[in-house]
């Protein structure tokens, strides 16, 4: 009798372990990093601001991954909370980034993932011109012009020079942007 209970428990244990790994494997995503050359490396906020057509604080409403010539991209629909430079019509903007979630594979550019729904950031943008779409903007310096907001600390995190994350209070970043716009 005890032997039957032990065998039954052992079989249940094996089934539980198999189910656990099946569920975990089904939900996991493979991560692939795309190594991109940065055409222009920015050393500070002033350089980013000078080279950007639009600087805005945004909330990502929706992301749409796609491929073009087998390269993964994501177009993010963003609501504009505040504009620091440039003009944004209809208080929304489309941001094009290299990378995204395609066929359960998370592609990132130089280790930096694309926006996800409901993320907030201050972005330095340049108008995109090319075959992917119209009325799109790109982040200056691939990822350098993307300052994600941490809602808990009201600070931004940005790897502007890829030597480590630069963390600024939102008000400090806004001051640097405003100083740049008043000196030009």
Characterization of this structure:
This protein is an alpha+beta fold and 184 residues long. The protein folds into 2 domains: 2-28; 34-183, OB fold (Dihydrolipoamide Acetyltransferase, E2P) (Beta Barrel), CATH 2.40.50.120. The protein is 26% helix and 41% strand. The chain is built from 3 helices and 11 strands. It has helices spanning 2-27, 45-51, 170-183, and strands at residues 30-34, 54-68, 71-85, 92-98, 100-102, 105-109, 120-127, 136-139, 146-150, 155-158, 166-169. The protein has a 5-stranded mixed β-barrel with strand order 2-3-4-8-7. A 3-stranded mixed β-sheet has the order 1-6-5, with no helix packed on it. 28% of the residues are buried. The model is unreliable at 3-26 (pLDDT under 50).
Largest sheet, if any?
5 strands, mixed, barrel
Q: Which structural class is indicated by helix and strand composition?
A: alpha+beta
What's the CATH architecture name of the largest domain?
Beta Barrel
Strand share of the residues?
35-45%
What distance lies between the first and last C-alpha atoms, to the nearest angstrom? 87 Å
Q: Indicate the low-confidence ranges by residue numbers.
A: 3-26
- Helix fraction, binned, reads 25-40%
- Strand order of the main beta sheet, please? 2-3-4-8-7
Output the number of helix runs.
3
Number of strands: 11
Fold-level CATH name of the largest domain: OB fold (Dihydrolipoamide Acetyltransferase, E2P)
CATH class of the largest domain: Mainly Beta
Shape: globular
> What's the average pLDDT?
82
**How many distinct domains?**
2
Rg (CA only): 22 Å
